Haem-binding domain-containing protein (Rubinisphaera italica), 172 residues
Amino acid sequence: MTEPAQKPDETTPKMKPSILRRIAVFGIVLFLGLQLVPVDRQNPEVVADINAPEEVKLILRRACYDCHSNETHWPWYSYVAPGSWLMAKDVREGRDYLNFSEWGDYYELEETPEYFLDECFGSIESGEMPLWFYLPLHPEAKLTEEDMKILKDWCQAEESVVAEEIEEDLES
Ligand code: HEC
């Protein structure tokens, strides 16, 4: 009865290194292979940066521009798959949603704060943006009370131009 129990004992110590080595070699080859998949890390031209005061822009640059502008900083992990794919995907989707490098084209100076309030402020206030996993890698992107106040004051300081225009349109 002891025979079958001994057999694996004899064979496993010999097999283990070779299987582990094969797995390791396979892993390295796979990892190197992944690096060959092309990743789009382009920063298209900034056509029309958002119309905002410099202090507002500085906050957005810190917290949002890596994913929502054409001025993305591509860190080292954006050059190593699979991190590169995840980052490229966030930037692609982020820019599709909202690109501060094009906002200046959409909205005039007076309209910008109101659209910002409408489209962006909620996602910042709820903590949805910047995306949570971005913060441990970019602590500087965390918005302080002071930053929030600057954004809020900017949004609220302007006259409600858009609302007035809509009202005028409805009246006429
Ligand atoms: C790490 C990349 C990243 C950063 C940094 C980031 N975003 Fe986003 N954002 C995305 C992605 C990806 C989407 C689209 C998918 C989604 O909603 O999760 C998005 C979507 C949005 C949307 C669309 C609506 C919504 O809430 O889903 C708004 C508004 C937005 N972001 C604003 C901001 C603002 C403002 C900042 C800076 C304070 C910011 N984002 C920072 C990646 C990012």
The pocket of heme C is lined by residues 63-64, 66-68, 90, 93-94, 97-98, 119-120, 123-124, 128-131, 134 (CB under 6 Å).
